[in-house]
Specification:
Elements lengths: L16 H9 L1 H7 L8 H8 L8
Length: 57
């Protein structure tokens, strides 16, 4: 049986911020994770996620 190809997990980098911002502000996603990230907190959210141990892209 063939095993699926898997991309290696990488720490979040600045190139991943667009995707993380979408997740942080998407109402459908945030219903499962909690409330949306308010617009005034997006900068702090971006800074907190880049290079954070245990957060992968």
């Amino acid at each position: 049986m063939n095993s699926p190809l898997r991309a290696p997990a990488q720490a979040v980098g600045t190139g991943d911020l667009g995707a993380f911002e979408c997740l942080g502000t998407d109402p459908a996603v945030r219903r499962h994770l909690g409330s949306c990230v308010p617009a005034h907190r997006l900068d702090a959210y971006r800074r907190a996620v880049v290079g954070r141990p245990g957060v992968f892209a």
